[in-house]
Amino acid sequence: MNDIATMSFEDAMKELEATVGKLETGEASLDESIKLYERGAALRQHCEKRLREAEDRVEKITLAANGQPTGTEPAEGL
């Protein structure tokens, strides 16, 4: 399994979807299900963080009076 912190949003979402699929089948043992759930929770948290970072960057795009983008401002914390 990949280190979640270094995963792209897309890769984390793909693994999260696969993890949910495995849990939904009900074929995993209890111990495996708990591990899958924990990994899924970490993947969800990572995806939410990456999405918030992207939203912050989009919000920092500056617009001219005519509504055209003129550049960006650095988002705090990035």
From TrEMBL:
<dbReference type="InterPro" id="IPR003761">
    <property type="entry name" value="Exonuc_VII_S"/>
</dbReference>
<dbReference type="Pfam" id="PF02609">
    <property type="entry name" value="Exonuc_VII_S"/>
</dbReference>
<protein>
    <recommendedName>
        <fullName>Exodeoxyribonuclease 7 small subunit</fullName>
        <ecNumber>3.1.11.6</ecNumber>
    </recommendedName>
</protein>
<dbReference type="InterPro" id="IPR037004">
    <property type="entry name" value="Exonuc_VII_ssu_sf"/>
</dbReference>
<dbReference type="GO" id="GO:0009318">
    <property type="term" value="C:exodeoxyribonuclease VII complex"/>
</dbReference>
<comment type="subunit">
    <text>Heterooligomer composed of large and small subunits.</text>
</comment>
<comment type="function">
    <text>Bidirectionally degrades single-stranded DNA into large acid-insoluble oligonucleotides, which are then degraded further into small acid-soluble oligonucleotides.</text>
</comment>
<comment type="similarity">
    <text>Belongs to the XseB family.</text>
</comment>
<dbReference type="GO" id="GO:0008855">
    <property type="term" value="F:exodeoxyribonuclease VII activity"/>
</dbReference>
<keyword id="KW-0269">Exonuclease</keyword>
<keyword id="KW-0378">Hydrolase</keyword>
<dbReference type="GO" id="GO:0005829">
    <property type="term" value="C:cytosol"/>
</dbReference>
<keyword id="KW-0963">Cytoplasm</keyword>
<keyword id="KW-0540">Nuclease</keyword>
<dbReference type="GO" id="GO:0006308">
    <property type="term" value="P:DNA catabolic process"/>
</dbReference>
